Amino acid sequence: MQKLLVIIIYIIFCLPSFGSEMDENSESEVDKSFLKDSATINYFLWGGRILYVRNKDSKIFDTSPKKWAQNITSPEINDGDNFATNYIYHPYFGALYYQVYRDLGYEKSDAYLGTILQSSLWEFTIEGTVEKPSVIDLIVTPGLGIPLGIYFENLNKELSKSHSFFKKTLSYLINPARLFMSEGDLGIINPLSGQFMIYKPFKYRDSTIDNSPISLSGISVKTYFFDVKQYRGGGADILYMVDASFTDNAKETNISLRFPWAGAYDGNDKEYNVVDNGFEVGNFSLLISKVLSSKEDVHIGADLGINFPTTTIWGDKKDRLEKLYSNSLILKDVLHDSSTLSPKFYIANNYFRFGAGSELFFNAKDYSNESKEFFAIYDARFNVFKSKSQKYSLDFDFKAIDKLTENSSGIDTFMEVIFKFVDNLNLAISFIKPLNGDAAKYIHNGIKVNLKVPLY
């Protein structure tokens, strides 16, 4: 009965979307483009699922081909979600699916089909790998989402034309996809200027620009993976973050917003209690960089970083972030209830960079029972190889973190070997080795991957 109901849903929704007025060649082109774009949308949904879900073991990885097959062949009427999830969140996401297809330039009939397709792919692939698809979700997401999407589409036409800042902001809340898409092009809206910066197709960017302390506006995805020593609990600590960067070249100023997630995998906390695998939202940060002087390829500048205690908004119910307190490299991103101020000065050119700064933690009681903590940070980076094409380079970085207010703690020192590839995308892969201090007692080594997409 449940399987028959799912088939009926598809027949009701899908058949009207195939018009007979199109010729065979035109229909083939649309189908090919539709399938490609639908696969791309589903790819981003998978990415969002992996980023958002805290308990990845049970929500994503706890599956097998056999379990998946059993799930999708025996859907259930209701998956047990509450009223808000079933009748507010699901219709809202259905409306987003519809608006994304419309933003990509598809006709309404194709947007109807796309909404049904994405809803079904979510139930049968993304969630279907670990749980049974919900018939209610299959009906409600497109059934209520499509009318809501049509309403939002008409409302957005009025809001986006308004001169009111509030109404324009509301239009982006109703359809966040407008930040990333414009007339079929993929990119991002700079909310400060309203300019749509396209990065598809990618353009070659002269790598010498990357050596400047100030980079072009871009989106970066950075991931740390630390191999924790067994006698300190074992397993791995993972941190990944998304950086959004905005640059004012005239004023030689760069502003970055950072959104981190962090978690433990197969490890214990400081008291050797097992930490449930998964991720928590870290402390959001704002970084302002300013070039103070630039003469003969030598740059002198300053950074000011502020980490906000946004972790407390979401809560750390599994104490996953607490486990990461032993790692001074990422402490400001994961420390609970603490605001961090990080001023820094540097001098740099294309071959070296020296920096000196500090990290001042306010309300650091969760870390050391003290209201404040003060660390001094020193780093030096040297370029040891650069290809003639300027695409490939190899750098060495040395960092020291002196926890001045922690008398019983030694200076944490690290060595980092960085390989960079700069072309259409910027890719940096680093090997991190702790040399001394508490960090050397805690982790064997670490790997960092930084992928940056320059925006134009």
Task: Write the SSE topology.
Elements: H1 2-14, H2 24-52, H3 56-61, H4 65-72, H5 83-103, H6 108-126, H7 135-161, H8 165-174, E1 181-182, E2 185-189, E3 196-198, E4 218-228, E5 236-248, E6 253-265, E7 267-268, E8 274-275, E9 278-281, E10 285-295, E11 298-307, H9 311-314, H10 320-323, H11 331-334, E12 339-348, E13 352-362, H12 365-368, E14 372-386, E15 392-403, E16 412-422, E17 426-436, H13 438-442, E18 443-454
Antiparallel strand pairs: 1-2, 2-3, 4-5, 4-18, 5-6, 6-9, 6-10, 7-8, 10-11, 11-12, 12-13, 13-14, 14-15, 15-16, 16-17, 17-18
Helix pairs in contact: 2-6, 5-6, 5-7, 6-7, 7-8
General description of the model:
With 456 residues, the protein is of the alpha+beta class. The protein folds into two domains: 2-181, no CATH class; 207-454, monomeric porin ompg (Porin, Beta Barrel). It is built from 13 helices and 18 strands. The strands form three sheets. A twelve-stranded antiparallel β-barrel has the order 4-5-6-10-11-12-13-14-15-16-17-18. A hairpin with a 3-residue loop joins strand 12 and strand 13 (352-362). The chain is globular and about 60 Å long. The N and C termini lie far apart (53 Å).
In short:
With 456 residues, the protein is an alpha+beta fold.
